[in-house]
Design goal:
- This protein is mainly alpha-helical and 263 residues long.
- It folds into two domains: 75 residues, lambda repressor-like DNA-binding domains (434 Repressor (Amino-terminal Domain)); 177 residues, Alpha Horseshoe (Serine Threonine Protein Phosphatase 5, Tetratricopeptide repeat).
- Helix 8 runs parallel beside helix 10, helix 9 runs parallel beside helix 11 and helix 10 packs antiparallel against helix 11.
- The chain is globular.
- 40% of the residues are buried.
- The N terminus is likely disordered.
Length: 263
């Protein structure tokens, strides 16, 4: 039987629970942030509920640092993100990824696919993951008639799968993006962003760091290079290399400043 005090703690918002357990583990926000490879500001926003914890992989990392079962933070009524949305949607995306090599009976006009893809990114940015998951199989089928859009389609697929805690399937989508890039430096760089996200979700931060730095050295697109450097910085932080993380993120910020100045 659960006592009232235990029940009240289970009903606390997840950020408040993180703060409570951090204090119980005698960690300051800075120490906790360092062990997670995050900033103190990130931790503070999570604990105050300003920043949502919408990735199960991140909740797992937090639970590991706090020496907890992730279920303690999620609570008895909060399923993991992917189960909350439903396995049917995940399975439909998996099936679409598996049939990537099959010819399509009817090509979809490129401009229509572009609109579909733009809407998918907007849906992702608004965190409407269930809606996006339902539309991804059709998008993945459609992009085979518009080869230039293969990389961004696989990239957004990998990104949402990472958010839903489906790191292995995200890696498959990222691998499809790399194959679709066909040695084009800009497309390869964009695909590597998806690869890095999947690798970080799988706990392979060192590999993600190496891949991003190599891709950043070859791409001529400053926007792509900046995103690669951000991913590299996050991977460095995740592997405990704080100094390298700060340098990479600072370099990414400098690139962004230069682009704004040029505009």
């Amino acid at each position: 039987m659960t006592c009232p005090g235990q029940r009240d703690r289970a009903e606390l918002p997840i950020g408040r629970q993180v703060a409570r357990w951090r204090v119980r583990r005698r960690m300051t926000q800075q120490v906790f942030a360092d062990r997670l490879g995050k900033s103190k500001s990130w931790v503070d926003k999570v604990e105050r509920g300003v920043r949502a914890l919408d990735r199960y992989s991140v909740i797992q990392e937090i639970a590991e640092v706090l020496h907890l079962d992730p279920a303690i933070l999620l609570g008895p009524r909060q399923p993991s993100p992917s189960s909350a949305i439903g396995l049917d949607g995940i399975d439909a995306v998996r099936a679409a990824l598996a049939r990537y090599h099959r010819p399509r009976p009817r090509a979809v006009p490129g401009d229509q696919v572009e609109r579909h893809l733009a809407h998918a990114w907007l849906t992702y940015q608004h965190a409407h993951y269930a809606q996006l998951l339902r539309s991804l199989p059709a998008l993945l089928d459609a992009v085979h008639g518009a080869l230039a859009l293969l990389v961004p389609a696989y990239r957004i697929t990998a990104s949402v799968l990472v958010k839903l805690g489906e790191a292995d399937l995200a890696w498959l989508a990222a691998d499809r993006a790399v194959n679709a890039a066909e040695a084009d430096p800009t497309r390869s760089g964009s695909a590597t962003i998806a690869v890095a996200q999947a690798l970080r979700a799988l706990g392979r931060d060192r590999l993600a760091l190496t891949a991003c730095v190599a891709a950043a050295d070859t791409t001529t697109d400053d926007a792509v290079r900046g995103m690669l450097l951000v991913q590299a910085g996050l991977a460095a932080a995740g592997s405990g290399d704080r100094r390298n993380a700060e340098d990479l993120l600072e370099h990414a910020a400098d690139l962004a400043d230069h682009r704004l100045a040029d505009d």
